[in-house]
Amino acid sequence: MKPIERFKTIAREAGKLVREGYHTSKTVRHKGVVDLVTEYDVRAEELILKRLSEHFPEYVLVGEESHYGTYDHQRAIYVDPIDGTTNFVHGIPHLGISLGLWEAGRPVQAVVYNPILDELFWAEAGNGAWLNDAPLHVSMQTDLQQSLIGTGFPYAKVNQGSEYRWVIDRLASVLPHIRDIRRLGAAAIDLCYLAQGRIDAFYEIDLQPWDVAAGILIVQEAGGRVSTLSGELYAFGDKGIVASNGCVHEALLNLMRPI
Ligand code: IPD
Ligand code: CA
Ligand code: CA
């Protein structure tokens, strides 16, 4: 089986478990004041890591619920077992299982699977991005004022510190100059929506490698651009990410300021 097909099989297997959890009552714990984790996040990650270690033994596995230490490795697979846990808990079907394989600082293959809507987004470097069997392409929107833009709010907002200020200040500077904002609640899926042309751009601060490892490749392979807040190539650990169809990127960056 090709490695990308293996990823899809693993995501679908975990998807079965997540779908079961979505339709039933579940144990919810707090990782922070509003940051939740359920038994299904943990069980789905265990299942995914077990399968990956059987089929990709030469890769370091970095899973949201079990990782510790550094996340910069020559060969690694970044796993978010449920991106959009808040939606999962509240019964909102915008969530995904995200698997991103990176080698030497570059994304190589990616799967983001929404098991509730049965939408499987995937990409291989140099081989395009796809939703199930349909090729993906970013939108052709060139006018920022007519652009629909995704974003997210870091959990640290509850502290009303610099992250909260940045979010509020950016909303104030961006909102009048775009069609509207969407805060859909799952960064990995938001990036896939950008790849598909459902939204025209996306920005957020404080995202972790497992949130974006797969989505970055899917956006790039769909013809989009991913950068830091100041326009450089995005790398894990950078404070902010800006992704777009390319056409509205500079105009959006002009409304951003590094934190
Ligand atoms: C979160 C989602 C959300 C984003 C948060 C992420 P989680 O991931 O992607 O959209 O705004 O910053 O942490 O906690 O649901 O896996
Ligand atoms: Ca996440
Ligand atoms: Ca998660």
Short description:
The chain is α+β, with helices and mostly antiparallel strands.
Per-chain topology:
Layout lengths: L2 H20 L5 E3 L5 E3 H17 L4 E4 L11 E9 L1 H6 L5 E8 L2 E9 L4 E6 L4 E3 L2 E2 L12 E4 L10 H13 L5 E3 L4 H10 L4 E5 L3 H13 L3 E3 L12 E5 L4 H5 L6
Parallel strand pairs: 3-4, 10-11, 10-12
Antiparallel strand pairs: 1-2, 4-5, 5-6, 6-7, 7-8, 8-9, 12-14, 13-14
Helix pairs in contact: 1-2, 5-6
The chain binds D-MYO-inositol-1-phosphate (IPD) and calcium ion (2 copies).
Keyword list:
single chain; 7 helices; five-stranded mixed β-sheet; alpha+beta; binds D-MYO-inositol-1-phosphate; 259 residues; D-Maltodextrin-Binding Protein, domain 2; binds calcium ion; Fructose-1,6-Bisphosphatase, Chain A, domain 1; 14 strands; 2 domains
